[in-house]
Structure formats: C-alpha cells, structure tokens
Amino acid sequence: MEPEKSSSGSRGKPIRCRAAVSRKPGEPLVMEEIIVAPPMPHEVRIRIICTSLCHSDIIFWKMKDFPGIFPRILGHEAIGIVESVGEDVNEVTEGDTVIPTFMSQCGECADCRSTKSNLCTKLPFKVSPFMPRYETSRFTDLNGEVLYHFLFVSSFTEYTVVDIAHVTKIDPAVTPSRACLLGCGISTGVGAAWRTANVEEGSTVAIFGLGSIGLAVAEGARLCGATRIIGVDVNQQKFEIGKKFGLTDFVDPANCENKSVSQVIIEMTGGGADYCFECVGLASLVQEAYACCRKGWGKTVVLGVDKPASLVSLPSQEILHGGKNLMGSLFGGLKPKSDIPLLLNRYMDKELQLDEFVTHEVRFEDINKAFDLLIEGQCLRCVISMCNE
Q1: What is the homologous superfamily of the domain 186-331 according to CATH?
Q2: 1 pLDDT more than 60
Q3: Which single residue of 289, 336, 341, 367 could bond 276 by disulfide (Cβ 3.0 to 4.6 Å)?
Q4: How far is Cα 299 from Cα 196, in angstroms, rounded to an integer?
Q5: Sign of CA dihedral 371, 372, 374, 380
Q6: What is the rounded CA–CA span in Å between residue 164 and residue 168?
C-alpha cells in the first residue's frame, strides 16, 4: 500500500511524514521521512502541532543500554489534532485537540476508579519501545526498519500513534505552545504539590533542584497558598527565576559553611519544612530532603529520576521516631484525563503560570538546537513547532 503524503484521505492508510529520529546514543537527531501505520483498535493517530523537550528525553537519548534502544523517536510533551481513530475508540473523534501523556488512565481498573491513585493497573507505566497493548511499533523508516516508541507518545514526528488510554481531549482554544507543557514536566511539578503532597495554606515547602520540575513544584505550592517556599540549587541565578513562581528563600549548598543543607533548612524553619520535594534524581538528596522534613507530619516527595539501581538509605530509628512520610510521585499524582483540563482552566483564568516556563521556541528543523539549549542549562522549556509557517 502506497503511503499517503498527508492526512488528506489518509484514514486507514499509512502516512509518510517527517520525523527527528534518534539513531545512536548522544548523536544529533536525524531529520528523515518515515512511515506511520494506521491506528489499531483502541489507538489514535495524531498530527503533532508542537512539542517540548524534557530532561527525560535527554536521559534516554544518551542511554547506551536498555531501556535505551535505537533507532527511536523521542519526545513526550506535545499537543496535536486527531487525524484518525482505530476501532473501539469513542472518547475522541477526528479533528479533536488532544494532549498525549506517558501516564495512562484506562478508566476501568481499581486504581483508575479510585481517588487514591493515578497508577493505572491495566496499562501500567513502563519504559517500553512499543505500543502498550500490542508490543509492536507503528513506525518504520523508508527501508522498512522498525523505529521504536518512547514513553507511549513519541512526539518528535509530524504524526504519531497513541493508545486512547494515554490521550486527553482538551479545549482547542488554549494556545498550543503552552498547553503542550502539561504533557509531562509542569503537570508533574504542580501536581506533586497539589495532588500528591496536598500542600496546605500557610505551610513551608523546600524544593531540592530548580529545573523546570522544581519550579513547577514552586508554582503548585504557590497556588496551594504556601507561605514560605525554599529553593535549593547550585545555580544562584535560579533564585531570581524562581521568584516568579513563588520562591521566597534560596539555599546554595556551596554556601552552607560547615553545615549540611538539611541543617540549614531546619534552622531556617524552626524544625523543618512541612513538605520537601526532591527534583534532581539523586539518592543523597532524597536523604537530605527527608532529614529536613518536619517530624510528626512532614512529607518528602520524590520526583527526580535516579539511576535504576540507586538505593536510598535511611536510619530505621529516624523512620520510627520521626513520624514522617516518604513517597514517590509519578506525573504528580495527576489523573491525565480529569486533571489536565482543570490545570488548563486555571491557566485560562490566569491563575496557573505557563508562559513563564517557555524560554525558547524553535522550528522542527532546528530540534537539535533545543537539545543544546537544555544541555547547556540555557532554558527551562524549549517549544518545537512542527509548522513551516
């Protein structure tokens, strides 16, 4: 079957389009034409409008061993238009505006029906190179070689195929270059403060690592009414940036004299922060965050992605005597289909800040520049536009 060049009359047929393919670990992405198969049952084919670059993309782009796998189409923060749907898809139809997410929400399992969890049991999160239900790819290059998927989204392509459990329909009126940010990073940070920690009005928050996720935690804590938001980072410039998102205090680990960061925060807060967030992905920082979390009711939330074999060591007596909570937060504890529209409403109502996270915008052809900017620490979020206009 000859692939269609565009979406015109393409329903049920393969589509030929451009993609930025990651061929080898750490090497620039290659812009090439690929074939995108039609959606299978429970799947949706989406025309990507714009996508953003997240640190997780960079981690897996550099990864030489499994779950790093090549050739692959990376990208997982995006917004697009439904081009066609497979069988048994009733939630969306052709022309709908949607945000694909790495988190699923099947709506049927015990976890999806519960308010206590966002971890779908039917389609659990994993770093798979394939579609979640079929363990097969929808991408091939022009030589017929399989191109692997990334986090069930793969947005560095003009067209992608996503399972309906990973698709959230949104209001088409929202600016695409801002809405796409809610596909991962900003949702994760805001959600961690809002849903996972349930930060209370008047509380004290400490955030370890002020990248996009850490700043999004600050934004979430600000929205929840936290009185004091302490940022911890080795880059002092992050304090000025963080003030936009509610940061009130800053700790540079290099300027703590002979004290640990946790000791400094305990002294600053008179006993420890009510809520601590680890946003870097270092076991040592999880321990520091837990150490400066207030006894009795403090919560430490882990958001950073560490190496798979990393272990966190905590004194058992401290756990017993401290009465603190230590918890993980995947996608900020958010249920994508129900919570992303709520966050977009708050953005439209000028409560939630999204514009401030976008520091750069590039065309699809210049996607490797976005990688350079993020690696060099020059940007928070770089939005990549798929349009030529």
Answers
A1: NAD(P)-binding Rossmann-like Domain (3.40.50.720)
A2: no
A3: 289
A4: 10
A5: negative
A6: 8
Q: What is the pLDDT of residues 128-165, one digit of tens each?
A: 999 999 999 999 999 999 999 999 999 999 999 999 99
d(CA 339, CA 360): 26
Give pTM, 2 decimals: 0.94
- The rounded Cα 264 to chain-centroid distance in angstroms is 30
Superfamily of domain covering 66-168+176-185+333-385: Medium-chain alcohol dehydrogenases, catalytic domain (3.90.180.10)
Burial 4-42 (b: 16+ CB within 10 A, else e): beebeebeeebbbbbbbbbeeeeeebeeeebbbbbbbeb
Of 231, 238, 212, give the one whose Cα is nearest residue 58: 212
d(CA 111, CA 94): 29
What percent of the chain has pLDDT above 90? 90
Cβ partners under 8 Å of residue 167, min gap 6:
44, 46, 91, 92, 98, 99, 100, 101
Report DSSP state, residue 68.
-
Q: What contacts 296, CB < 8 A, 6 or more positions away? A: 322, 323, 324
> Would you state the structure tokens that stand for residue 185, as one six-digit string?
């990073």
The rounded distance, in Å, linking the Cα atoms of 87 and 104 is: 18
Structural contact between residues 289 and 208, judged by C-beta atoms closer than 8 angstroms? yes
Instruction: Please name the amino acid found at residue 120.
Output: C
Cβ contact 12:119 at 8 Å:
no
Domain boundary assignment for the chain: 66-168+176-185+333-385, 186-331
CA 291 – CA 305 distance, rounded (Å): 20
Sheet bearing 146-147, strands edge to edge:
15-21, 30-36, 139-141, 146-147
